[in-house]
Design goal:
elongated, single chain, 5 helices, mainly alpha
Length: 123
């Protein structure tokens, strides 16, 4: 088939292309529905910032307490007589780096929960 034959076949008896019946009405109905939809509710950052700041301060305070306990050691606390089993468990956990593992796990958990809450997922 040559270009002239193809052009002639495409021009044959078609003066105007019309959409199928109901197409225009369905498109206009979809446009009206979209226009009638209310805008999404914005995230209330002004209400969330104090809570986030309090959570960050609590995490920093907990981290400072854990670091101070790790530096001074459990034995040096004269006010409390720790049971020897607890002292040994603390030393084993400290040697294994359990404090960092727990801190990283808590941080990951908090990040996931905050992301889920921001995204609107229920959990």
């Amino acid at each position: 088939m040559r270009d002239e034959d193809l052009a002639r076949a495409l021009k044959a008896d078609v003066d105007e292309i019309l959409p199928s019946s109901g197409f225009v009405a369905s498109v206009m109905e979809a446009v009206r529905l979209e226009a009638a939809t209310p805008p999404p509710i914005p995230f209330p950052w002004t209400r969330a910032v104090p809570g986030l700041a309090a959570a960050v301060l609590a995490l920093v305070a907990a981290f400072v307490v854990v670091v101070q306990l790790a530096r001074t050691g459990v034995h040096s606390s004269a006010a409390v007589a720790w049971p020897p089993e607890l002292v040994r468990a603390w030393e084993i956990a400290n040697d294994a780096g359990l404090g960092w593992i727990v801190a990283a796990s808590l941080l990951a958990f908090v990040c996931v929960r905050v992301a889920m809450r921001v995204a609107g997922a229920r959990g």
